[in-house]
Each structure stands twice: as structure tokens, then as C-alpha cells.
Write a structure and sequence with these properties.
The chain is of the alpha+beta class. It contains 6 helices and 18 strands. The strands form 4 sheets. A 7-stranded antiparallel sheet has the order 12-18-17-16-15-14-13. Strands 2-3-4-9 form a 4-stranded antiparallel sheet, with no helix packed on it. A 4-stranded antiparallel sheet has the order 5-6-7-8, with no helix packed on it. Helix 1 crosses helix 5. The N and C termini lie far apart (51 Å).
Length: 370
């Protein structure tokens, strides 16, 4: 990172605010024009929703209540109780496998059906509006589609240890998910903004496929002093997941970057780091195995702070960036044009005059238009 940016990035990371440098956020200067993309969006890291937890998160101009039952069942629902409209995320609670409204104690089971009231009378025929939800790679995803269609694809799972949580932070900034995910294919900014050296990178998105992969090697990444190889997995317009294999097969470093649309021209940026170790050099036997997890958690927290500085530089850019529909690309930019064509599949209506590619037919799958 260029030295003159470091004070701004440190201020952002300490204050959680990106209104820096005397410039206004992009959404206050330019009316947001792009719609919300369809797809899976992260509303929390898994450790934020423990058994019995109830949280409220913004998504695409609305709110979603996410909760986990005593047995670990994860659910995402519309906040309003169908009885008299109380907000389930404001005083709502989980009792066993049911979420209970705070207003009249109407209870709803994991299917969303009302199973009892606070009056010891038969419950009405009422149910909560549920959103498709999944827990993958230490992240809680909720499916959103402009037409209310069910999930069209799945979030790929990585071979990580689900028992170890991510160290993570969340930022509210101006921006659009498409511009955040574009980072995976904007190869020119890696040496210019982040100072990566000896960069060798390849990978282009495939039309109609919701997941894309980029592989790279470079010096100057999170693991300072090493030439690091890593794989970026781009999941729709919501997630960039990075996996690096540590030298000498010591373990894996995972970095998750989630961009969730919250309102017109606004996003929540969730950023997490997790180090998984296969062992501790010089510490043998059962002692080494017992120490692996606590040591990995400690280093995950440290690496989160180190990686957060690099990500903070991107946050500054996104928060003040004006989307250029017809960019004047140059040699060395990376496959940005191809990425933007690929991104059209995640919109109900194409943007920028581009036609979204038709997703490939899968055996046994049906299309909404059929």
C-alpha cells in the first residue's frame, strides 16, 4: 500500500467510518441506479448466531431476522409477526425450537407455522415468511431474488474446520456488490494499491456459471516474506473467498470478503480471516495437537488486523467510487469486461444494455419460464 494511504486506512479501521479525506460518500453525490443483484448474501459469520440467538440484519432495502434454535436449526424470516405486526427481532426470543413474538407470545416452529399463543388457546392459521438460508464456510447466507424465486444454485463448501470461527469485522459503506466482487478480476489494482510484486494471475468467469475461480502467486500478500500462492473463489456477486496453502504444508489461510446490499447504493462489507494449522513446529504429540486450535485462533486475530489494513484501502476506494458503465480499459487491467458480462446473469433485468447469459440446464432442474 502506498504510504500516504495508511493514515486514512488506520482511521477507517479504528472508527468503522469511511467518511474520510474530505470527500462525500458516492451514494450522496450520485443517485444509485443499479438494482440489487440476485443471489446468496452473507448476513453474519456463523459464530454471531449461536443457539438461542436472534439477530436482525438489513438486506436489499428490507430487514431479515436470523435465529438459531436450541438444537442448532438455522432460520431466516421476515421480521413482522403475522398476528399484529410486532418486530420479532426487537425482544423476540428462542424457546427450544420455536421463535416467540414479544408482543403476545405467539410462537412459531422451524417450519414457520404458529404453534401456540400466549392465551392458552388454539393458535390461528398463521405462518412466518421464511427466506432460504444456508450455513457454509463459517458464514450465514440468505437467498434474495427480485422476483421471489427460490435458489437457483448452491454456495460451494470448502474443506475447512467448522469448529474454529473466523476473526471478523463489518463495515457499512457506500457501494454496490458488483464493484466489490470486481476486485477479483481487477488485477491492475493489486500492484498499484496493495503493492503486490511478481504477480502471476489467471482466471476468467465462465458465462452462465455462478461461481468463478482465479489462481495467483505473488509477493507482498498477508504472509509477508513469502511468495504466496492462493485461490480466489468468486461466489455470485456476494463473496470472494481466498484460500492459501501455507509453506511446508503447515495449514491453510482462509480470507472471506462478503458484500451484502443493504439499501440503494449501500452495502455491508464483512471481512473475516481464519488460520488452520496442521501442527505446531517443534511441539510434538498430544501437546502439539491440543495447542493447535488456540494458537491458530490467536494468529487468526493477528492476521485479521494485518489483512484488514489492505482491505481498508479497498474500502476507501469503494466508498467514494463512481461506477463507470463504459470504462476506458487499458492493457494490464485484467478481464474486467468479461466479468461485467458474466455479472449480468445475477440481475432480473440486464443493466448497461447487456443481455444476461442463460444459465446452463441441469438434469432434473426446471426454469421459471417453463
Amino acid at each position: 500500500m502506498k504510504p500516504h494511504l495508511k493514515p486514512l486506512v488506520k482511521q477507517l479501521l479504528s472508527s468503522r467510518r469511511a467518511d474520510l479525506g474530505g470527500a462525500a460518500p458516492a451514494d450522496t453525490l450520485h443517485a444509485p441506479s443499479r438494482p440489487y443483484p440476485n443471489g446468496w448474501f452473507c448476513l453474519a459469520f456463523a459464530d454471531e448466531v449461536g443457539p438461542g440467538s436472534v439477530i436482525t440484519r438489513p438486506l436489499a432495502g428490507a430487514e431479515v431476522v436470523v435465529y438459531r434454535t436450541a438444537k442448532g436449526v438455522l432460520r431466516a424470516v421476515r421480521p413482522r409477526c403475522p398476528h399484529l405486526g410486532a418486530h420479532l427481532g426487537v425482544g423476540g426470543s428462542v424457546e427450544g425450537e420455536d421463535i416467540v413474538c414479544p408482543f403476545h407470545r405467539f410462537a412459531f416452529d422451524p417450519t414457520g407455522a404458529c404453534v401456540r399463543t400466549g392465551y392458552d388457546e388454539p393458535p390461528p392459521r398463521a405462518s412466518l415468511t421464511q427466506y432460504p438460508v444456508c450455513e457454509t464456510n463459517g458464514s450465514v447466507y440468505v437467498w434474495w431474488h427480485a422476483l421471489g424465486l427460490p435458489p437457483q444454485w448452491d454456495v460451494p463448501a470448502f474443506p475447512m474446520d467448522g469448529r474454529q470461527p473466523f476473526s471478523h469485522d463489518t463495515y457499512d459503506i457506500a457501494g454496490h456488490p458488483q464493484d466489490v466482487i470486481e476486485n477479483a478480476f481487477d488485477w491492475g489494482h493489486l500492484p498499484a494499491l496493495h503493492g503486490l510484486k511478481d504477480l502471476d494471475i489467471e482466471g476468467t468467469p465462465v458465462a452462465g456459471e455462478p461461481v468463478s475461480t482465479v489462481t495467483a502467486t505473488a509477493r507482498g500478500t498477508v504472509m509477508r516474506g513469502f511468495r504466496q500462492s492462493y485461490t480466489l473463489t468468486v461466489i455470485g456477486l456476494g463473496t470472494i473467498a481466498a484460500r492459501s496453502v501455507l509453506p511446508r504444508d503447515a495449514g491453510n489461510l482462509y480470507v472471506m470478503l462478503h458484500a451484502t446490499p443493504t439499501g440503494p447504493g449501500r452495502i455491508q462489507l464483512r471481512f473475516g480471516t481464519k488460520l488452520e494449522l496442521n501442527g505446531i513446529p517443534g511441539v510434538p504429540g498430544t501437546i502439539g495437537r491440543a495447542a493447535v486450535t488456540p494458537v491458530a485462533r490467536l494468529f487468526s486475530a493477528v492476521l485479521q488486523r494485518v489483512a484488514g489494513v489492505d482491505t481498508g484501502a479497498d474500502l476507501l476506494m469503494w466508498h467514494h467510487q463512481e461506477h463507470v458503465e463504459q470504462p476506458k480499459l487499458a492493457k494490464g487491467d485484467g478481464p474486467i469486461g468479461r466479468y461485467r458480462q458474466w455479472a449480468q446473469q445475477f440481475y432480473t433485468e440486464p443493466t448497461g444494455g447487456l443481455v444476461p447469459p442463460r444459465p446452463p440446464r441441469r438434469a432434473g432442474a426446471s426454469h421459471p419460464e417453463e
